[in-house]
Design goal:
Layout (H helix, E strand, L loop, with lengths): L2 E4 L6 H7 L4 E5 L28 E5 L5 H9 L4 H8 L3 H10 L2 E4 L6 H11 L5 E5 L6 H4 L4 H10 L5 E5 L6 H6 L8 E5 L15 H4 L2 E5 L12 H10 L8 E5 L8 H6 L7 E5 L6 H10 L5 E6 L5 H10 L5 E6 L8 H10 L4 E5 L6 H9 L6 E5 L18 E5 L6 H10 L4 E5 L6 H7 L1
Parallel strand pairs: 4-5, 5-6, 6-7, 7-8, 8-9, 9-10, 10-11, 11-12, 12-13, 13-14, 14-15, 15-16
Antiparallel strand pairs: 1-2, 2-3
């Protein structure tokens, strides 16, 4: 059977008079192993000396093809601009392309928002992924577009919605979030810097939390209000017995955690978590990490950018309760962190850590790294940033499986410490950054 090519060159005057504004297909039936054709979905190279000038060529209007074949052709168009252009050819192509559209990204410009969202949902009835971003640098008239009524329209007109992202949507409130409970297929929700929503508001999602597999939440950095946790929220939570048993990934940024906050209640009810990321979340303490480790024993990845004084107790709890943990990132932004190398060793001894990232760890020195190298038989990737007490890298030879190493901001490391490591030829990837004592000559050798 011949290969099919969409060829705009065959849309000449004669074919246009015959077929109107229909898009045309170029179908070629070349001999087997013919070198005159370019790779799939490209045009035949007529300039090739091997090209057969008698190659039979046929043109067919796309509207004369079966709808299943047209749908398959449209699926292979990856660029939105190409799909948009094709949809303008005819009403039939317009309808087929709209039914196949699965994702859409909306920025400022929905005026009025209610009619615009209704029109979008009507044109694209099978949308599964929607991202709405209102640029907070614009004036307030443009920023305050998507509101609670807009979320109601999305929840009622997008039955296939599985992934929703809301950025800088200032007019969404608790009432708007409650509309998402009717999205039966919603499994991925991101709420980023929406000024009218705080941590406690997430409880309003209700039954939607039962179906979520991924949750990302970031509070608004500008103009955010002090959060007062209401005891009635916790009472309502336990009364309704809402649990997040399907939640697999949680990313929290600049959030406030507390005994009666929505986020703390969510984390305490997760049993399937595999990936957790806390970035500068205030109020996070050892009890939260202990509760998380006991409830989510299948945890595989955790990232803690700490702005609260966690201790070794948290790491020991993770090491003893989460045997599947493989990826750990610890950033010690808090100046008075109580975590020591003993906590790191307890974590490594209890889990098969393969990726370890340590940022701003003031307790790291040569003896601490020597102990870590002897306790990490499974470690494959190590990243050290701003550990200025480290002077010797010879301990890295003791890591039996280490193949990826990144060193950033370690000012006391010199060429003499790197030479033995380079000679072993164990590393597949080595990155050195902001280490002023590493000579340019050695850097050139590593290229």
């Amino acid at each position: 059977m011949g290969d099919v090519y969409i060829n705009p060159k065959c849309w000449n005057k004669e074919s246009k008079e015959k077929n109107g504004n229909s898009a045309l297909l170029l179908i070629l039936f070349p001999p087997l192993n013919s070198p005159c054709l370019s790779p799939r979905f490209s045009y035949p190279r007529r300039s090739s000396p091997h090209c057969n000038s008698t190659l039979p060529i046929f043109t067919i209007a796309m509207e004369n093809l079966p709808e299943a074949l047209i749908s398959e052709i449209i699926k292979r168009l990856t660029k939105s601009s190409d799909r948009n252009s094709l949809s303008l050819v005819s009403k039939e192509l317009y309808k087929i392309e709209a039914n196949q559209r699965r994702s859409i990204w909306v920025k400022c410009g929905l005026i009025p928002v209610t009619e615009a969202l209704t029109s979008l949902c009507t044109r694209f009835p099978n949308l599964a992924k929607i991202e709405i971003c209102n640029d907070y640098d614009r004036d307030s008239y443009l920023v305050k577009q998507l509101n609670d009524q807009g979320l109601f329209i999305l929840s009622t007109n997008c039955p296939s919605l599985t992934n929703l992202t809301l950025k800088f949507c200032s007019c969404i409130t608790d009432s708007g979030l409650s509309h998402l409970a009717s999205c039966k297929k919603l499994v991925d929700l991101s709420i980023l810097e929406c000024r009218g929503i705080n941590e406690t508001s997430l409880v309003k999602l209700g039954n939607c939390l039962r179906r979520l597999k991924r949750l990302e939440f970031k509070t608004h950095l500008l103009g955010s209000q002090t959060i007062i946790h209401d005891p009635l929220v916790a009472e309502s939570w336990f009364r309704d017995q809402i649990c997040c048993e399907r939640l697999e990934e949680v990313n929290l940024c600049c959030c406030a955690l507390g005994p009666e906050s929505g986020l703390s209640l969510i984390l305490g009810s997760c049993s399937s978590l595999e990936k957790v990321r806390f970035y500068t979340c205030t109020g996070l303490d050892d009890s939260d990490i202990i509760s998380l480790s006991k409830k989510s024993r299948g945890l595989k990845s955790i990232s803690l950018m700490m702005s609260s004084p966690l201790t070794d107790v948290s790491l020991k709890a993770l090491g003893s309760n989460c045997p599947s943990l493989e990826n750990v990132e610890l950033a010690f932004w808090y100046p008075e962190s109580s975590i020591t190398i003993e906590g790191i060793l307890a974590l490594v001894n209890g889990c098969s850590i393969r990726v370890l990232v340590l940022r701003h760890a003031r307790f790291l020195n040569d003896s601490a790294m020597q102990a870590l190298s002897l306790a990490s038989p499974c470690l494959e990737t190590l990243e050290i940033e701003k550990a200025r007490q480290i002077t010797n890298l010879g301990f890295l030879i003791n890591f039996p499986r280490l193949v990826n190493l990144k060193i950033n901001g370690c000012h006391r490391i010199t060429d003499d410490e790197l030479e033995p490591l380079i000679k072993t030829k164990k590393l597949h990837h080595l990155m050195i950054k902001n280490c002023p004592r590493i000579s340019h000559k050695l850097r050139k050798r590593l290229l």
